[in-house]
Amino acid sequence: MRDPFKNPFPADDAARRAIWEMLVPRDIDAFLAADWSLVSDDFVEDGFIGIDGRREVSPDKWRLAFPTLGAYRDEWLRQARDFAGQSFAEDPRTAIFTTTTLEDIEIEGEMALVRKKFDGSLKKTDGVDVLKWQTLYYCRLHEGRWKISGFTGYLPNPME
What we know:
There is one protein chain. The protein has one domain: Roll (Nuclear Transport Factor 2, Chain: A), CATH 3.10.450. The mean pLDDT is 97. A hairpin with a 2-residue loop joins β4 (111-124) and β5 (127-142). The chain starts with 13 loop residues before the first helix and ends in a 5-residue tail after the last strand. α1 (14-33) packs antiparallel against α3. Helix content is 28%, strand content 36%. It is built from 3 helices and 6 strands, in the order αββααββββ. By secondary structure, the chain is α+β, with helices and mostly antiparallel strands. The chain has helices at 14-33, 69-84, 92-99; strands at 49-52, 63-66, 100-108, 111-124, 127-142, 145-155.
């Protein structure tokens, strides 16, 4: 069984290890703290684009919800603050790590296509939140480190 807290990439694969660290523990911890400053340096602002797949298989239903990094930041903060106000029947950090899989990173030169998937649930005091979607991140080597330049997210998992 995989350890959800352990970086799955070998020590000699610095690029994939760095991308995993950015998109799994740093992202989760920043979200739980509702603190954008913990991840703000993980993005390339110039030309950033975020597509909301609306958990729909058909690209006809996807929307350009985040035409700027600022638009995405504002929604990220809204979601993080909403999440922080909820009450859980289990440790949310452990639950999110357990539902998260990021093991497929395709790198070509200074660009990367990263597949991050959520498949599980989070027990709340008043029910259960199902965490079942996936995101394709577009990353690039920028100013000496890997950063997110855009994504197509909130896609069904699995795609039908």
